[in-house]
Each structure stands twice: as C-alpha cells, then as structure tokens.
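Example record

Each entry pairs one chain with its bound ligand, adenosine-5'-diphosphate.
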Amino acid sequence: MLIEGKTGTWEIVIGLEVHAQVSSQAKLFSGADTSFGAEPNTQVSFVDAAFPGMLPVINRYCVEQAVKTGLGLGAQINLRSVFDRKNYFYADLPAGYQISQYTQPIVGKGTLTIDLPDGTSRDIGITRLHLEQDAGKSMHDQHPTKTFVDLNRSGVALMEIVSEPDLRSPEEAGAYLRKLRAILRYLGTCDGNMEEGSMRCDANVSVRKVGSREFGTRCEIKNVNSVRFVMQAIEYEARRQVDLVEEGGTVVQQTRLFDSGKGVTRSMRSKEHAHDYRYFPDPDLLPLVLEKSWVDKLKAALPELPDAKKDRFIASYKLSAYDAGVLVAEK
Ligand code: ADP
Ligand code: MG
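Structure tokens for the complex follow.
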C-alpha cells in the first residue's frame, strides 16, 4: 500500500516480532502447569517464583516444539544455541531477569509465504526464532490502590519469531500473521489464540519515499492482540509518520502502544530510555546441543503444511489459488 502525501508518495516498511506461547503442559524450565484461566498463583513452582537456590531444568518437549516450528518455517536449525539472562527489574519478574536467547538462538533464517487477496503469493524473510520465558502478570484492576501479581504465566515457554522488514502494507502484515498462525496450528506448536494472549505481536513501522533505498526510522508498537488491531495500528502509525515528516518533523525511534478504543498509537518510551539488559549467558544452563539425527526425525514426521496442501488442492482438484487458499487457511 502506498500513501499519497503532500510532498510525494510514501511506502510503508514493516517488520513483525511475534511472541507465540509454546503448546506444552509444563513450563520451559519447571514442571508447573500452563493451563489458561486458572486461579492466580496456583501454577507456580519455586523456580517460577525465583526462590533462592532453585535451578532451571530445560523442558525437552518445548525444545522439540521450537525445532518443529523452525522446520515448518523452512528455517536453519542451530544445533548449538545458548540461553542468556536478560536483566531488568519489574514486580512481575521475581528473578530480576528473563531467560532468553540473544546472539545464538535455536532457529536462524527462514521464509514464510504470504497469500494475498488477488491470489498471488510473496516470500517474507524470517530473521530468527528463539526460546524465552514469559513473565508474570501485573493486575492493576483488582484493587483501587494496589497492584496484584499473578505468577501463573511466569516461566511459560514462548517462541519469539522475528521477521525481516519485508512487509509493505497492513494487508501484508495481516496475511503474515494469519499464515504464521495457520502454520503454528497445523504443527500443533502454539494454539494461536490471540484473545487469550498466546500469540502477541509487536509491529515495527517506518515510512520512506517511493524509490528511496534507505529505511526510515522505525517505531515499535508493542503487544497488539488481534490481527485487525495490528493492521489498524500500522495504518495509523504510517499516516502519523508521513504527516510528521511532511510538516518538517522527524520520526524518533520509539516504543508506542495502540489504543484500540481510539484507534491511535501513543508514545510509551523513547530510545534514550531504552533498556540496557546486560545480557550474559545463564550460568545455570549449559549450551543447548541438539543431535542432527533427532532434528532429522522431527523433520520427517512434520505434518503436511498449508502451502503444500494448497499446491496439492490446486493440482488434484483444479482449484484456483484463491479457493485453495481459503480451504487450507484453517486446519
Ligand atoms: P530490536 O531488538 O530493537 O527490536 P531488531 O533489529 O531485532 O531490533 O528489529 C526488530 C524488528 O524491526 C524486526 O522485525 C525488523 O524486521 C524490524 N525493522 C528493523 N528496521 C526496520 C525499519 N526501518 N522499518 C520497519 N521495521 C524495521
Ligand atoms: Mg523489538
């Protein structure tokens, strides 16, 4: 989608970061239950509450789910990856750090093919997928003057899936999210329920004049929880940036929030206040080393995914690309 401004025509550039909750009965480094909707603080082990001396033990099944997802995205599986501590203080993060992966993620570059309404397809680059823990939840609406903390989510396994800045319109971003969700559901690695928060999206948005080779400065819209809202947020944000630049202003790198009631994005913090997370390898965890034969076995057992199924439907039943796409969109 192009935006007609007062000074010319603008192109939108978008990269998405998706947090997908791994479908697993237990957490990433503890045996605590992950079921949605339980009473607060009933699914919390000593590890999740960061009691002194507790040690994380990696959940093999969560690793398997991440590898399957990487394979489903046609991505590089890194046979050696490292867990790092991402340090920050927050009331819902009892350890004072999140265990994540930084320079050596479990999955590297891949591709996701998006299907557009006119029946054409386009390949979008996947930069990486890494495993990390979720934090707890601060509940601000339970008491007039107090915030409560629910640690049920603390330690639940997430896959952060980062795209290249290859998307060019809200529609493409929507198509990307729907396709990613379909693949996750076919694989059974994430239930993709955005309303329950098991898939959340950060949208990075910048604009540039058509023909320009360089990217503009981006803003990151945090934690949007529906495909429609992601599309609305991008559309609003791109317009805002075009208007700002055309009025002589400059876009500053910022984290913004989308207000779905008003349909606008608002500044949350600027890059000067960006966190310095002091990442370092978690000394409680050894590097994660996978055997190639194990990865090959998972690859051989992958189910038929939407793209392959779509091709098969087109070939076997002489359907149009559009019709086949509609039929395979849901598992
Ligand atoms: P950070 O860790 O600060 O979020 P990354 O370099 O990992 O930064 O980028 C995060 C996301 O931002 C990726 O999805 C990437 O594609 C996207 N991105 C990077 N530069 C731009 C840009 N100029 N415009 C839009 N998206 C961008
Ligand atoms: Mg980011």
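The two ends are 29 Å apart (CA to CA).
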